[in-house]
Specification:
Number of domains: 2
Number of helices: 4
Radius of gyration: 43 Å
CATH architecture of the largest domain: Roll
Number of strands: 4
Largest sheet: 4 strands, antiparallel
Strand order of the largest sheet: 1-2-3-4
Structural class: alpha+beta
Amino acid sequence: MSYPPQPGGQWPQQPYPQQPYPQQQRAQPGYPPPGYPQQPKKRSLLWLWITLGVVVVLAAGVALTGFVAPGFFLNKNHPVGAARTLPEPQFMNELLGKLNAHDLAGAAAYVCESADESPASLVHGHFADPNVGHYRVREVEPLHEITQFVGVDSDFPGNPTPYRATFMLRQGPDGGFCLFGVI
């Protein structure tokens, strides 16, 4: 149904208002238009490669210092003053010979590099008393494959009770022993 023209040549108003067309949104340069999915950022991939590179460098550093120099993953159960360890009977004979001669510097050479105390501190702290007589092995008690306890007695002149100590020996990489501690 159409309406006749109104005086003055105007058409009558429509019974419902016209809706304008939606405005198109424009994207800014370098960005996708609205409604499109965002693309993954290339920066996250860059950070992944940087993180991976840092992890590889740190792992190589730990491996190098742990196994080459200073070698903290390696077995340091060898005497500080010798290139290799000795079998237990020979080791005890030589160590007790040094202690009985009151050669504390010589005895310190038999202390393990991995000992909790410095060699001089360990030897001087337990064997510096010049009144102690002759040291001798009382008993040998293997604890497990790398640790062995050796009971040692020594006489004090004029004292009926012997001085008793227990040497804790550690087995080195070549199968011999070194002094790890004194109990």
